[in-house]
Amino acid sequence: GIQVEQSPPDLILQEGANSTLRCNFSDSVNNLQWFHQNPWGQLINLFYIPSGTKQNGRLSATTVATERYSLLYISSSQTTDSGVYFCAVEHRATDSWGKLQFGAGTQVVVTP
Amino acid sequence: DAGVIQSPRHEVTEMGQEVTLRCKPISGHDYLFWYRQTMMRGLELLIYFNNNVPIDDSGMPEDRFSAKMPNASFSTLKIQPSEPRDSAVYFCASSLGQGARAFFGQGTRLTVV
Q: Does the distance separating the beta carbons of B42 and A98 come in below 8 Å?
């Protein structure tokens, strides 16, 4: 199977700070998605980003598929950004099509 | 759109009882997924359907687990008999197309005592 590693595992930010979360994957992927799990447990899809760069408000993401990594940028962080950020990939292997493999997540706490 | 709808939100049951979790995908989505989230194993895919047909159930932990999708707007995940180690949050997700953007329901927190 494919390995998905996220770093750092934990992150504490002061409100207003910027940060970068990283996702490394061990093999070629068809697609990559970033999710935010809020403190109430809801999983929100932030980005569908198999390659390139996308922006959504204060969040942006970049995937460099040839180098097998993706980055999620949080700018001007707010307390509502707290939660766990997951990277998930669909392995290009044919027996993995349609399946999302999740990383272990980065726990983010934004303090006032 | 109301998004993916799961019920119940919370379920507490005694060991040995049957548990049925329910999911309504986003209208028009042709893929439906069941995931389980635990502290030890994280988010793991149990089974997924395409056009109501089960495609891959290799993640189903054992025969006590079964899933059905009788029509495009409804799916169930059943555990019979339930065990304490089944305690977890169970998520349903749907997408439009293979490998497309996945949208998750709010989850069902299952506690087996």
A: no
Tens-of-pLDDT digits for all 112 residues of chain A? 899 999 999 999 999 999 999 999 999 999 999 999 999 999 999 999 999 999 999 999 999 999 999 999 999 999 999 999 999 999 988 777 788 999 999 999 999 9
Whether residues A98 and B31 touch (CB distance < 8 A) is answered with yes
On whether the CB atoms of residues A101 and B58 are closer than 8 A, the answer is no
Are A98 and B101 an interchain contact pair (Cβ–Cβ within 8 Å)?
Answer: no
Which positions in chain A touch B1 (Cβ < 8 Å)? Answer: none
DSSP H or E stretch at residue A25: strand A19-25
Determine if the peptide bond prior to B81 is cis (ω within 30°). Answer: yes
3-state class (DSSP) for residue A54: strand
Buried b (16+ CB within 10 A) or exposed e, A68-107: bbbbbebeebeeebbbbbbbbbbbeeeebebbbbbbbbbe
CA distances from A80 to A33, A40, A83, A87, B39 (A): 20, 11, 8, 19, 23
A43:B104 CB<8 A? yes
For chains A and B, count residue pairs whose Cβ atoms are closer than 8 Å.
Answer: 50
Residues of chain A with Cβ-Cβ distance to B56 below 8 Å are 98-99
